[in-house]
Amino acid sequence: MTDAADGSGADPVDRLVEQFLARCRGGAPADVEAFCAAHSEHAAQLRELLPMLVALEQVKRDRQTSTGSGTRPLSLPPLERLGDFKIVREVGRGGMGVVFEAVQESLGRQVALKVLPQASLLTGNQLQRFQREASVAAQLHHSHIVPVFGSGHSDGFHWYAMQFIRGQSLDHWRRTMAGAPPADPAAWRDRARFVARVGAQAASALHYAHGQGTLHRDVKPANLLLEHDDHVWVTDFGLAKALEAEGLTQSSDLLGTLQYMAPEQFAGQYDVRSEVYALGVTLYELLVLRAAFAGRTRSELMEQIRSLRPTPLRRACPDLPTDLALVVERAMARDPGDRYADAAALQADLQAFLDDRPIAARRHNAAQLLWRWCRRNRTVALLSACTLLAVVGAGVTGWIAYVTTDDALAREQQATARATKQGELVATNLQLTLTAFGELFDALVGRDRALVLDEDPDTGEQTVVARTVVEPRDVALLQRMLAFYDRFAAANADDQSLRFETARAHRRTAAIQARLGDLDAAAASYLQALSRLLQVEGRDVRREVVAVHVDLGQLEQRRGRSGEAAQRFRQALDLLGPDSAADPLAIRFERAQALFLLGRRGGPGGPGGRPPDRLRSEAQSELDTARRIAAELTAAEPQNPEFRALQARLQLEAARRPGGDGRPARDAALATLRTLVAEHPEVDTYRHELCEALWAEARRGPGEVRAAPQQLEGLREARTLAEELVRQQPQVLEYRLLRANIGATLGQRLVAAALVVPGDAAALRQEAELELRAALATPAPTSERDSLRQALPMLAARTALAMLLLDTARPDAAAKEAEAVLTSLQALVRDARGARRLPGDARAFELLDVLLRRLGRSDLQEQWRELRTRLPADDRSGAPPRRPR
Amino acid sequence: MHADDDDLLEQRLRAGDDSVLATLLERHRERLVRMVQFRLDPRLVGRFDPEDLVQEAYIEAGKRLGAFRGDSKPFLVWIRLITQQTMIDVHRRHVGAAMRNAGREIKPPASGTMSRFFVASVTSPSNAAIRDELRQRVEQALDSMEEIDREVLLLRHFEELTNKEAAAVLGIQENAASNRYVRALGRLKGLLEGLEPS
Fold this sequence. Notes:
CATH topology of the domain at 1-105 in chain B: Rna Polymerase Sigma Factor, Chain: A
Number of helices of chain B: 11
Largest sheet of chain B: none
Shape of chain B: globular
Strand content of chain A: 5-15%
Largest sheet of chain A: 6 strands, antiparallel
Order of helices and strands of chain B: HHHHHHHHHHH
Oligomer: heterodimer
Strand order of the largest sheet of chain A: 1-2-3-4-6-5
CATH class of the largest domain in chain A: Mainly Alpha
Number of helices of chain A: 38
């Protein structure tokens, strides 16, 4: 008996009432008479009050009746009528109830009546939810949503009346079609259009409902009704949540629904993208005519959804149009961030497919959209990035604090389950946060080659993404982000995907640093990426490690460290193993690329840069292997731009091979590169390669010199490309230097051409002067390595300019330029390393000889003679320049 | 005993032991959910799961522990206030400026809200008529009662508070609360005169 504790300050009757209540709530029968008899002193008052209490409790208890066991059989006695409804026939039976065709007699209309199991079996909560959802569904008015007329209860049954749809569910349709997939490509086209129409209609219904704040929560073929073979109706909005959450439905039915659950739902996340996913899986199944996932038990199915990718559509249905496959697969992407952002976007792409317009799935993933946005709103984007960083930083600290508290709380028995759920939510949130960061990275950096190829190893579908303009301040931002990644990865040491993301982030930063010309910082970042990748466990990171080695190799090459470069390429090749035609195309591409970089002329393992222990034939066989792989890759995917670019590189390399006639290969390579530039104007690497190739072509030695006008055309084309590159990426040092170098070469050739083509001399000289002055005005690079590299071309340009001035009767200006040339030369010769660099292009000195003789300045000639004795032996003779072998 | 336990937990929480918060919250969860169920604006019913709202209130409670320690309010009163505040916030977010009147919004149950529970209790056709009538009468009766009478009935019955707790929530003495309760039951009886419970 309760006494003092609660009742101390209470009215004596109240104390008795509490006792009575405690009994009732404890499950004892509410025997008012017996209780009154036992407490005769208050019997009269109790007799008055206790019935009130019973009434109030009755109301409450009805809602709180516990369910007990989870699943119950669905039992409905044969019904002829229910309230206002005259039952015509049973049309379906599911976990949630039985569906009848019925006539609502007062209105004389035909309805579909969904009747729930007898109300006594339902808990108050279930009914409440059911009614709540029914009333929400009744507010949805859309041409593809089955109208709900109302819900109610009659004769102990709860019902839900909807418009009667004459047709079949798509689940039924799929099962009847299962034995007979379309027989030929034409039939497949029709089927694809049918499924796209179904999807577009369902997506529009979902999008409308989402706009009304309602989630369907159970999108699946069984809830899509097909009327007259082409009008689709979505039914049962929200009912799933109302009933299934309470364990009312049969377990087999739950399993059916699980099929369409998005992976993030297992972590408690659910939003419109989860419905996009479910619709994606639905469309997938309508195409392949079987379940996307085929687990037999709940846990098996969940595991599959979480970790398996269903058979790619193009493999399951080879005749299916690729575009529709892309749309459906994007809708059902495992990561919500990779899906369409909402049902409207899915609908739009399905419609695009139906209209034969280009679909968005092919080109635009989330990162690209973000990238575009960033490009349009550059300042805003950077600001947002910083803000996001701050916000997320704060949020994360908050979350961690919360998790810690929650951990402590979790020790209390009852809270344990709750805390675990929270923990999972936190983990998911972190993951989502990191995904957002990844997208931001992509937006700033663009996806690098290997990552682009990563897109879809099954279909080989990929997108070439332009790199956005990067600046040093981007690097500062990225480095702050990196610090953030690192902190996170350290705090979550056992989270492998975090480590992986961090590694990727370092690699991307390295790529930016390299482009901005900070080679040492880039090397350090690559090594960071590598060390983090090597810590990743339980995940195959071979591809990424290979890609970093290749990147690093190219970087070392640029830093003039051939030995290290060769080592990197070999490490990549060792990891890749010997070539096999069975390997995925992307792997074979990496292999061919590494072989090319290693064996090419001027490459660390090729002629020119070849270490003494290597044979030329070795490099040759590497190139041959690369060439063979490249040919097979392009045969497999003639449209793949990266494959075509690699083949062009190898053709150019072959054209440079001494002995043969390289012209056909060279012309083919140039044509390929021109096509790639035209097809992908946003990708600067193709433009860069074409530009370099044209420039190299123009600089060829006398034996292969084409007619001068043609040579000038090539150089002019290279100049235009270089200008575009600088415009596209003003911060990339290499492009600025390239632009200056091409200008210098073009200027020199124009000066020479003016002598042979007297008719055009004036115009040619004018062009030459512009080019040369522009080249000379380019700021010198700050790093020693780059400034040395740039020194000779600029000396040559200045010499040519002096010659031009002389040709145009400006001897004083010419003499000034000549003096400047000698001064720079002197500075170079004083530095031993500079002197060693000089003989590389002795042609400049020939011209200098001529210039000084023409100028007739004996003092300058004397100075030059003296300087020449200090140049390396090879060139002191004034012999023609040696060409590299 | 439960109540003693609660007092002890409450003391520990006030003394700075954060680890007991979850247990306390868990013990009050059901009644808080009930409170939300009964008091949520009917316009929002169907948009919100009371459990979610209570969950949100918990997070808020975690953030405001300092305030709890700086105040002498019993834990139940404090957590109810936070839950009510969460309900108000939800209203603001979802019902909009036009409806902004916090005082009205969380007013004890509108009859529409109550009636759903009565509807849900129907289990057989024979009972249905009686229950239906009961529902209407109880609704009318509650509506016509003084606010504090109605409130005390709701607290004691629907939220299952003890007298002591109800008194704390109402901010009155325990004996006054108890008298109120007994009197309110009597008034309900008067208002429902002639009706026999099933």
